[in-house]
Design a protein that fits this description.
The complex is a heterodimer of chains A (304) and B (400). Chain A has 12 helices and 4 strands; from the N terminus they run ααααβββααααβαααα. Chain A is mainly alpha-helical and 304 residues long. In chain A, strand 2 and strand 3 form a beta hairpin. In chain A, helix 1 (2-32) packs across helix 9 (228-241), helix 1 (2-32) runs antiparallel to helix 10 and helix 3 crosses helix 8 (193-219). Chain B has 12 helices and 12 strands. Chains A and B meet through helix 1, strand 1, helix 8, strand 4 and helix 9 of A and helix 2, strand 7, helix 7 and helix 8 of B. Chain B: This is Leucine-binding protein domain-containing protein.
Chain lengths: 304, 400
């Protein structure tokens, strides 16, 4: 019983980081039909933004040493600028292209960001110590609850709630949803398309910077491909959850975290190495039963 | 099939011809080719060893060169790409390389080494810890400069049992590369012979969290009395795993492989202690004057000392190669390889080295145990397992 409960806590911790990443990917897909594989590299940018840009083997904190009230907006701003730049340079010229073309574009962006990081920061993985105070744990009976997981969970739920309120209540949120529903029609009705899309990129940048900080606090390590597996699993989460639905993205994120953790915990040792293969097989099963995802978005139902 | 064979024969023929052609053109010198990564992520592993090779060449030329000839170098960037690696190897062979140095990893170095093998030229991996980087993989002309990953794990297991009194081990294996699995295969072989390996778990280097692995580990520590952890991983996964292990309040001693050598990653694990790994040399605090001298010369030439021990092994290997070439009186592969294979505990600046006609990698040498405390890595003692690693462990046949 304790074992199962502990595994559930572990699953929540992995799930919340996937959910937060999936939120960023799901948002852009909802508005732009863009499956942004470069989202993981936005996370990488957010993490590397903490340190002095140099090829030295030992990383020195720069923004990472700022007061937290200054550091959060600074990191967010850097990732937002990066996200807006990719929109302006790559995705705006591809605006009328088909979703597969956009996706290929995002692969190219991902490749360019990774190599730019290699060029600027050198090829050796780096190590930093961010907020090690958050890396403590609360012991409740036999249960181990890491503080950082609680923080990650709270941040994920808060950002999801904030984003939902923004989309439902604010003027720009309504415009964004209108654009997601029918982009052409929204434009006819006076929604400034490029502005709304830029806004979506900026928000996905904020989400990526949150993931970056939580992830680096957890792992203490930076590498040029650090965001790639996150984006991959988050993309799967978006697909399971229902493409275009934000709640779906979060639900999918938690589900993927749950599946991976339970497989890691209960698979026999010889099969554990194939954990991800089992996880993806389960994803296929989910999609066979519910092709539109667990929480299908209204506007994409017919398209799938 | 026939056509492919013919093509291969033709191509290698052309390559050999081109090789002899330009080699003849440069008969007054011996040429060392460097098909290494100067860009991409492998640069972190190739860069310093390549610099060390340059240092060796400079010193050797100052001492009169090899066979009375000066050593010339040619180099090409593999760009951390296997296809580029093959091209780089080929072009250097065409430029007349008599010896080819290749990337510090079996997968990334093999494409260039295979070109050398086909052209009948000796190749040396700057730091591949896989015995396939030799006779049974690339071919009889390929060597690697370092010890098998299995020996790293075996050394830690044996030393841990004898000197630290460890009896019950637990393996945490990063599945992302083969090297990690090889370290733990060696550890298991050596430690299970004397103590008991209680359990093993796996993760992937870029997993965002390893909570469920830590849960299982905590359980094994509480219920089965595990007294140390063997972490078989490479950075960035290794530092991340260690940070999470320590953050979870697990203070048991942790053993690891050579890949975590160096202090550049210590920021990830504040106040790390009780962490041990084996190396072949220490950039700071090596007791051997010859190694200190190399470090000094390296620092003088390149502005800072090597980051890790991976810079050093090529130096010792090139010394052996030079001795073999001078004995054979030629740089031709066959006689030189025959000379190299006579090495049995042959002394080098880094300690004894042996080669046989089956193994072109070190599987039985003393390694230096180092420990980490207070942001410093320091020498503990030299340790030699002194047993032959069986083939199923060395080649990781079923179940190993």
């Amino acid at each position: 019983m304790i074992g199962l409960l502990q595994n559930l806590i572990d699953a929540l911790s992995l799930g919340s980081i996937y959910a937060l990443t999936a939120l960023g990917i799901g948002l852009l897909f909802g508005i732009l039909r863009l499956i942004n594989f470069a989202h993981g590299d936005f996370i990488t940018i957010g993490a590397y933004a903490l340190i002095v840009p140099s090829a030295d083997v030992t990383a020195r904190m720069l923004i990472g040493d700022f007061n937290i009230a200054l550091m959060l907006p600074a990191i967010a701003l850097i990732v937002i600028v990066a996200a807006l730049l990719t929109d302006a340079l790559v995705f705006r010229p591809l605006r009328r292209s088909s979703p597969p073309t956009l996706m290929i574009g995002s692969f190219a962006v991902s490749y360019i960001i990774q190599n730019a990081v290699l060029m600027m920061y050198g090829s050796r993985p780096k190590a930093i110590n961010l907020w090690s105070d958050a890396n403590t744990q609360v012991i409740i009976g036999d249960l181990r609850v890491p503080m950082l997981q609680v923080i990650t969970l709270v941040v994920t739920l808060a950002l999801m709630a904030g984003l939902s309120v923004f989309l439902k209540k604010s003027r720009y949120g309504v415009q964004m949803r209108a654009a997601a529903e029918d982009f052409r029609m929204a434009q006819y009705l006076g929604v400034r398309g490029n502005f709304v899309i830029g806004l979506a990129f900026a928000i996905s940048g904020i989400l990526a910077s949150a993931v970056a900080l939580l992830y680096v606090t957890q792992s203490g390590s930076l590498s040029h491909t650090m965001g790639v597996p996150l984006a991959l699993f988050a993309f799967v989460a978006v697909v399971i959850g229902g493409m275009g639905s934000l709640v779906g993205a979060v639900v999918g994120g938690f589900l993927v975290g749950f599946i991976v953790t339970m497989l890691q915990a209960y698979l026999p040792p010889d099969l554990r190495a194939f954990r991800d293969a089992f996880a993806f097989a389960f994803v296929i099963l989910v999609l066979l039963v519910r092709p539109a995802g667990l929480v299908p978005a209204r506007n994409t139902v017919e398209r799938v | 099939m026939k056509i492919r064979f013919l093509m291969a024969a033709l191509l290698s023929g052309v390559a050999t011809l081109a090789g002899t052609f330009s080699a003849q053109a440069k008969e007054d010198s011996v040429t060392i080719g460097m098909a290494v990564a100067m860009s991409g992520w492998m640069e972190a592993y190739d860069g310093e060893a390549t610099k060390m090779a340059q240092l060796w060449i400079e010193k050797t030329n100052a001492d009169g060169g090899v066979l009375g000839k000066q050593i010339a170098t040619v180099s090409a960037d593999t760009k951390t790409d296997r296809v580029e690696g093959a091209k780089a190897g080929q072009s250097l062979i065409q430029q007349g390389a008599n010896l080819l140095l290749v990337s510090a990893d079996y997968d990334y170095g093999a494409p260039a080494a295979l070109q050398a093998q086909k052209a009948g030229i000796i190749s040396a991996f700057l730091g591949a810890a896989d015995p396939k980087a030799g006779v049974l993989g690339v071919g009889p002309f390929a060597f690697t400069t370092i010890a098998a990953a299995q020996l790293e794990g075996a050394t830690m297991g044996d030393w841990g049992f004898e000197k630290k009194g460890f009896r019950k081990g637990y393996e945490l294996i990063d599945e992302s590369i083969e090297y990690n699995k090889s370290i733990c295969a060696g550890y298991k072989w050596a430690f299970a012979a004397k103590g008991e390996v209680i359990g093993a778990d796996t993760f992937k280097g870029l997993d965002p969290v390893i909570s469920s692995q830590i849960t299982r580990m905590t359980d094994a520590i509480r219920t089965k009395g595990v007294d140390h952890i063997m972490l078989c991983s490479t950075n960035p996964g290794a530092a991340s795993a260690l940070r999470q292990i320590r953050a979870a309040g697990i203070t048991l001693p942790v053993l690891s492989g050579t890949a975590m050598d160096g202090t550049y990653w210590l920021n990830a694990v504040p106040n790390l202690k009780d962490f041990y790994l084996p190396v072949q040399a220490l950039p700071a605090g090596d007791a051997r004057p010859a190694v200190e001298e190399i470090t000094k010369a390296y620092t003088a030439k390149f502005g800072k000392p090597p980051t890790t021990q991976y810079a050093y092994p090529i130096y010792a290997w090139l010394d052996l190669w030079k001795a073999a070439v001078e004995k054979a009186g030629t740089t031709d592969a066959k006689p030189v390889v025959a000379e190299l294979e006579k090495a049995k505990d042959a002394p080098t600046v880094l300690g004894p080295r042996s080669f046989t006609n089956k193994l072109h990698i070190q599987t039985d040498i003393p390694l230096l145990i180092t420990s980490f405390a207070g942001d410093k890595q320091s020498f503990v003692e030299e340790w030699r397992v002194g047993k032959t690693i069986p083939d199923p462990v060395l080649y990781r046949l079923a179940g190993n």
